[in-house]
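Hello Y.,

Per our agreement to keep a running log of every chain we model this quarter, I'm adding this entry. I've kept the format consistent with earlier entries: sequence first, then predicted structure.
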Amino acid sequence: MAALGTIDLELEAEEYEFRADEGDHTPTDAEKALLIDFGAGLMHAVHDAIRPLLASTPAAPNSDLATALARQMVWSRETFGPAPRTKGTVAHIKKELKEIEADPTDLVEWIDVLILALDGYWRHGGKPQDLPRMLKEKQLRNSRRRWPDWRKVAEDQAIEHTRDGEGDALAAA
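Predicted structure for the entry above:
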Protein backbone atom coordinates (compact mmCIF):
# COMPACT_ATOMS: atom_id res chain seq x y z
CA MET A 1 0.00 0.00 0.00
CA ALA A 2 2.75 2.47 0.87
CA ALA A 3 4.28 2.02 -2.58
CA LEU A 4 0.97 2.87 -4.26
CA GLY A 5 0.71 6.06 -2.29
CA THR A 6 4.14 7.24 -3.44
CA ILE A 7 3.86 6.67 -7.21
CA ASP A 8 4.14 9.90 -9.22
CA LEU A 9 2.10 9.05 -12.31
CA GLU A 10 3.15 12.16 -14.23
CA LEU A 11 6.83 11.43 -13.64
CA GLU A 12 6.34 7.78 -14.57
CA ALA A 13 4.58 8.77 -17.80
CA GLU A 14 7.30 11.31 -18.61
CA GLU A 15 10.05 8.69 -18.23
CA TYR A 16 8.18 5.83 -19.88
CA GLU A 17 9.49 4.45 -23.18
CA PHE A 18 7.23 2.26 -25.29
CA ARG A 19 10.08 0.16 -26.64
CA ALA A 20 13.36 -0.94 -25.11
CA ASP A 21 15.44 -0.80 -28.29
CA GLU A 22 17.73 2.12 -29.09
CA GLY A 23 16.23 5.43 -30.05
CA ASP A 24 13.84 7.88 -28.49
CA HIS A 25 10.49 6.28 -27.77
CA THR A 26 9.24 8.95 -25.36
CA PRO A 27 5.44 9.07 -25.40
CA THR A 28 3.56 12.00 -26.90
CA ASP A 29 1.43 14.23 -24.67
CA ALA A 30 -1.66 12.21 -25.63
CA GLU A 31 0.11 8.94 -24.79
CA LYS A 32 1.27 10.41 -21.46
CA ALA A 33 -2.32 11.38 -20.65
CA LEU A 34 -3.46 7.83 -21.42
CA LEU A 35 -0.70 6.38 -19.24
CA ILE A 36 -1.64 8.68 -16.34
CA ASP A 37 -5.34 7.84 -16.65
CA PHE A 38 -4.60 4.12 -16.88
CA GLY A 39 -2.22 4.25 -13.89
CA ALA A 40 -4.71 6.21 -11.79
CA GLY A 41 -7.49 3.77 -12.66
CA LEU A 42 -5.29 0.82 -11.82
CA MET A 43 -4.26 2.36 -8.48
CA HIS A 44 -7.90 3.03 -7.57
CA ALA A 45 -8.93 -0.51 -8.53
CA VAL A 46 -6.18 -2.05 -6.41
CA HIS A 47 -6.94 0.28 -3.53
CA ASP A 48 -10.66 -0.52 -3.70
CA ALA A 49 -9.82 -4.21 -3.65
CA ILE A 50 -7.65 -3.94 -0.52
CA ARG A 51 -9.73 -1.32 1.33
CA PRO A 52 -11.67 -3.98 3.29
CA LEU A 53 -8.35 -5.42 4.46
CA LEU A 54 -7.19 -1.99 5.62
CA ALA A 55 -10.44 -1.38 7.49
CA SER A 56 -10.58 -4.74 9.22
CA THR A 57 -9.16 -5.17 12.70
CA PRO A 58 -9.53 -8.88 13.44
CA ALA A 59 -7.47 -8.73 16.61
CA ALA A 60 -9.27 -5.63 17.90
CA PRO A 61 -11.31 -6.00 21.05
CA ASN A 62 -14.96 -5.03 20.95
CA SER A 63 -14.19 -1.35 21.41
CA ASP A 64 -15.80 1.68 19.85
CA LEU A 65 -12.49 3.52 20.30
CA ALA A 66 -10.52 0.85 18.43
CA THR A 67 -13.13 0.75 15.67
CA ALA A 68 -13.14 4.55 15.35
CA LEU A 69 -9.34 4.55 15.05
CA ALA A 70 -9.42 1.79 12.42
CA ARG A 71 -11.87 3.85 10.33
CA GLN A 72 -9.77 6.99 10.84
CA MET A 73 -6.64 5.15 9.73
CA VAL A 74 -8.18 4.07 6.42
CA TRP A 75 -9.54 7.54 5.66
CA SER A 76 -6.36 9.32 6.75
CA ARG A 77 -4.08 7.01 4.75
CA GLU A 78 -6.25 7.52 1.65
CA THR A 79 -6.45 11.27 2.13
CA PHE A 80 -2.97 12.20 3.42
CA GLY A 81 -0.83 9.22 2.40
CA PRO A 82 1.14 6.71 4.48
CA ALA A 83 4.04 8.93 5.63
CA PRO A 84 4.57 9.72 9.34
CA ARG A 85 3.74 13.44 8.72
CA THR A 86 5.03 14.28 12.22
CA LYS A 87 5.78 17.96 11.68
CA GLY A 88 2.57 18.56 9.76
CA THR A 89 0.48 16.82 12.41
CA VAL A 90 2.13 18.76 15.24
CA ALA A 91 1.66 22.04 13.33
CA HIS A 92 -2.00 21.22 12.81
CA ILE A 93 -2.46 20.39 16.50
CA LYS A 94 -0.91 23.77 17.39
CA LYS A 95 -3.36 25.50 15.03
CA GLU A 96 -6.30 23.67 16.62
CA LEU A 97 -5.06 24.57 20.11
CA LYS A 98 -5.13 28.26 19.15
CA GLU A 99 -8.73 27.80 18.05
CA ILE A 100 -9.51 26.20 21.42
CA GLU A 101 -7.89 29.13 23.22
CA ALA A 102 -10.15 31.46 21.23
CA ASP A 103 -13.28 29.47 22.15
CA PRO A 104 -12.77 26.72 24.74
CA THR A 105 -16.45 25.76 24.56
CA ASP A 106 -16.21 24.68 20.92
CA LEU A 107 -16.15 20.93 21.49
CA VAL A 108 -15.52 20.21 17.81
CA GLU A 109 -12.08 21.81 18.13
CA TRP A 110 -11.28 19.48 21.03
CA ILE A 111 -12.33 16.55 18.84
CA ASP A 112 -10.03 17.84 16.08
CA VAL A 113 -7.10 17.62 18.52
CA LEU A 114 -8.11 14.08 19.49
CA ILE A 115 -8.32 13.00 15.84
CA LEU A 116 -4.93 14.53 15.07
CA ALA A 117 -3.40 12.85 18.12
CA LEU A 118 -4.85 9.50 17.02
CA ASP A 119 -3.44 10.14 13.55
CA GLY A 120 0.02 10.61 15.06
CA TYR A 121 -0.50 7.48 17.17
CA TRP A 122 -1.14 5.14 14.23
CA ARG A 123 1.38 6.83 11.91
CA HIS A 124 4.09 6.00 14.44
CA GLY A 125 3.13 2.37 14.93
CA GLY A 126 0.08 2.41 17.20
CA LYS A 127 -2.50 -0.30 16.52
CA PRO A 128 -6.27 0.12 17.00
CA GLN A 129 -6.50 -3.02 19.13
CA ASP A 130 -3.80 -1.66 21.48
CA LEU A 131 -5.31 1.80 21.97
CA PRO A 132 -7.90 1.01 24.69
CA ARG A 133 -5.34 -0.96 26.73
CA MET A 134 -2.62 1.68 26.33
CA LEU A 135 -5.03 4.45 27.29
CA LYS A 136 -6.12 2.54 30.41
CA GLU A 137 -2.48 1.82 31.35
CA LYS A 138 -1.51 5.47 30.97
CA GLN A 139 -4.49 6.59 33.04
CA LEU A 140 -3.51 4.08 35.73
CA ARG A 141 0.10 5.29 35.64
CA ASN A 142 -1.05 8.89 36.03
CA SER A 143 -3.35 7.96 38.92
CA ARG A 144 -0.39 6.39 40.73
CA ARG A 145 1.78 9.47 40.38
CA ARG A 146 1.96 12.22 42.97
CA TRP A 147 0.40 15.53 41.96
CA PRO A 148 0.53 18.95 43.62
CA ASP A 149 -2.60 20.30 45.27
CA TRP A 150 -4.62 21.74 42.39
CA ARG A 151 -5.91 24.52 44.65
CA LYS A 152 -2.37 25.91 44.84
CA VAL A 153 -1.84 26.08 41.07
CA ALA A 154 -3.23 28.94 38.99
CA GLU A 155 -5.87 27.82 36.48
CA ASP A 156 -3.76 29.07 33.55
CA GLN A 157 -0.75 26.97 34.61
CA ALA A 158 -0.10 23.34 33.73
CA ILE A 159 -0.29 20.89 36.61
CA GLU A 160 2.50 18.34 36.28
CA HIS A 161 3.19 15.38 38.50
CA THR A 162 6.00 15.71 41.00
CA ARG A 163 9.24 14.17 39.82
CA ASP A 164 10.95 13.55 43.17
CA GLY A 165 11.02 9.82 43.92
CA GLU A 166 8.90 9.10 40.83
CA GLY A 167 10.76 5.94 39.94
CA ASP A 168 10.29 4.54 43.46
CA ALA A 169 6.57 5.37 43.58
CA LEU A 170 5.89 3.79 40.19
CA ALA A 171 7.96 0.70 40.91
CA ALA A 172 6.05 0.12 44.15
CA ALA A 173 2.69 0.46 42.40
